[in-house]
Structures are given as C-alpha cells and as structure tokens.
Design brief:
The protein contains 2 helices and 4 strands, in the order βββααβ. The protein is α+β, with helices and mostly antiparallel strands. The chain has one domain. Strands 3-2-1-4 form a 4-stranded mixed beta sheet, with helices on one face. A hairpin with a 2-residue loop joins β2 and β3. α1 packs across α2.
C-alpha cells in the first residue's frame, strides 16, 4: 500500500473531512475527537488512537489541508 494506512482527506464544502483506513471509507470527521472514534472503531484502543491523533503520527496522512482543521475551505 502506498502512503499511510489512515488518510484524512480535504475538507468538504459543508465541513468535515472524509477518513479512510486501509483504503476503506470509515466516515466524515468534524473534529479530532471524531477521528479518534473512527480509529477506535477500526480496532485501535482509545488511548492509542488519541496518542496517534495528538502526536501527529506518521500513520495518519493529512491531505489537502492543515492537520487538525475540519472546517469548510
């Protein structure tokens, strides 16, 4: 697989960012908390998911916008 296994795509017109895990769409995050929840639902425990998001892990690729920003462009 090319790139990171978790991708947070560009902001949508209504806000929020599509999240894919290993190439599958898991939802539309409107905050880091929402991103943590998607990672938790994908099999990570909550503490690991929170650490990954807060620590700007290399496992997460932020495309088309700044990391941790979810508002519409």
């Amino acid at each position: 697989m090319d790139g990171a296994p978790v991708v947070v795509h560009w902001s949508r017109g209504s806000g929020g960012r599509r999240v894919t895990v290993r190439g599958e769409i898991v939802g539309l995050a409107h905050s880091d908390r929402g991103l943590v929840e998607f990672l938790r639902q994908s099999g990570l425990d909550e503490t690991s998911a929170e650490d990954m998001v807060a620590g700007d892990s290399a496992v997460i690729e932020w495309r088309g916008g700044r990391a941790h920003h979810y508002e519409a462009a």
